Amino acid sequence: MSTPTITNVSSCTTTACAFNDGGCNAYAITVGGENAAACGTFTTLDIRAGISDAHSEVGACHRLDCTHNKDLMCAADSISIVGESAMCADYNAR
């Protein structure tokens, strides 16, 4: 098995997420969701959290039906998280 590349979260427009403070401040996110590819790290709290200078990455992808999923890792160059429901804009069904 080859070593997977690390996929960056290039942007996040989900302003309701506690990890979004001018961009994703989570160290890593998980892409999951049952009916659609969504950020599993999304959380709504009354604080802003995470690392202020984080270069967020996809830590894992649980969407086996995505063409970018290689051994539960994201193989896309980068992804964007969009909308108030934190959807992965780069999800591409097989």
UniProtKB/TrEMBL annotation:
Q: Tell me the InterPro entries matching this sequence.
A: DUF1540
DUF1540 domain location is 12-42, 64-84
Q: Which Pfam families match?
A: DUF1540
User: What is the name attached to this protein's record?
Assistant: DUF1540 domain-containing protein
**Organism of origin:** Corynebacterium occultum
Its organism's taxonomic lineage begins at: Bacteria, Bacillati, Actinomycetota, Actinomycetes, Mycobacteriales
